[in-house]
Amino acid sequence: MKQQPDIDVVIRYLEDPGHEEHKRSLDEWLQLDAANLDIFLETKALWQGEVLPAPASYNTSLQWQQLDTRLTASNLTPVTNPQPVQASKGKLRSIASRYWWAAAAIVGIITAITLYRQPLYIAQQTAQNTDSLLLPDGTKLYLNAHTSVKYPRHFKGNSREVFVQQGEVFVDVKHMPEKPFSVHLKNVDIEVLGTSFDVKETKKGVNVFVQTGKVKAVYKNGKKSVVLTPGEEAEMLLAGATISTRYHRNNNPIAWKTGQLTFYDTPLSEVTAILEDYYKVRISLKGEGLADKRLIATFHKESLSEVLDILSKTLQVNAVQKDSLVEIY
Question: What whole-number percentage of the chain has pLDDT above 70?
């Protein structure tokens, strides 16, 4: 009995015709049976030609019925010489068998190619904008600007995994205790069950801030980890396994998502660091004692110029902005 053709051999070659190993594998497969060449040519035409039909729209049953009708009609064709009929039947059976198999393979190839072209993972990337998306399990991802994530088209098994390749993501996890949720970064893994948290990859390392629930952040080398509860933020440096944590009375770490900045008697040195991150500018304090001045204020989606104006009046300082540089004196 002939074996079912290895569709992957054909597809791998069509994906990368210049690959020597793929060429060799295809050649060996073509030598196995003459019908393989027909299958290959049909597949190549489909691959390079028109858009393939989706599996759901391709009527496989109808294709088999039409092929059966043609083959049956061929078998019922009248002949006058009985002896050649036996030989013709034998030959016809051989041809019919070969092309039944070839037709079945081509129908399978159409479905296989369509599925093959659908990647197992979906990649999402932002530029200057923020974005949000809903994962297959109901988990929501909010992407800051210049962020790239990857996640499975379907969550299978008893786990859910998302990969943050760069940038900052706020994750609102759908509570599913039987399927733990994980976020993977280059050097850090984050494990949760049902919670909302922010994860940000920086040049120095990874920052994790928890809004609700509980999160465990682990270095991939397994040497150190930290468990965070609401309001806690951890900074995990790339060099070594250093973890520092702090508690926030507000949600400033996710201001990029909420649009709100809140300061409770906050030193100006800390205020400027938060404003730098939120507005993507550099702020320089010029003068003794400025860093210790304290601010009580709440801002909601105000422009930087509006914030600097309020800050100047509240703290009795001068703030001058030139392009992406701000000087406070």
Answer: 74
Where does CATH 2.60.120.1440 sit in the chain? 121-249
8 Å CB contact between 225 and 210: no
- Report, in this order, helix, strand and coil percent for the chain, each rounded to 5: 40, 30, 30
Q: Is 99 in a helix, a strand, or coil? A: helix
In eight-state DSSP terms, residue 220 is T
CATH topology of domain 121-249: Jelly Rolls (2.60.120)
Q: Tokens in use for 99?
A: 């092309």
Neighbours of 64 (CB within 10 A): 14
What is the Cα–Cα distance from 163 to 233, expressed in whole angstroms? 20
Extended beta strands in the chain, E state: 121-125, 131-134, 140-143, 148-152, 160-166, 168-172, 181-184, 188-192, 196-201, 205-212, 215-219, 225-228, 232-237, 243-247, 260-267, 282-285, 294-300, 319-322, 325-328
Q: Is the pLDDT of residue 247 over 90?
A: yes
For the chain, give every residue range classified as CATH 3.55.50.30.
259-328
Joined tokens for residue 208: 């994790």
pLDDT above 90 coverage of the chain, percent: 51
pTM of whole model > 0.85? Answer: no
| Each residue's pLDDT tens digit, 15-25 | 777 788 877 88
The CATH number of 259-328, from 3.30.420.40, 3.55.50.30, 2.20.25.90, 1.10.3720.10, is 3.55.50.30
Residue 226 in contact with residue 201, Cβ under 8 Å? no
Contact of 167 with 143, CB cutoff 8 Å: yes
Cα–Cα distance, 210 to 247 (Å, whole number): 10
Distance CA 230, CA 245 (A): 12
Q: How far is CA 90 from CA 34, 58, 85, 190, 290, in A?
A: 18, 32, 9, 66, 99
Q: Do the beta carbons of residue 192 and residue 208 sit within 8 Å?
A: no
CA distance 224 to 242: 8
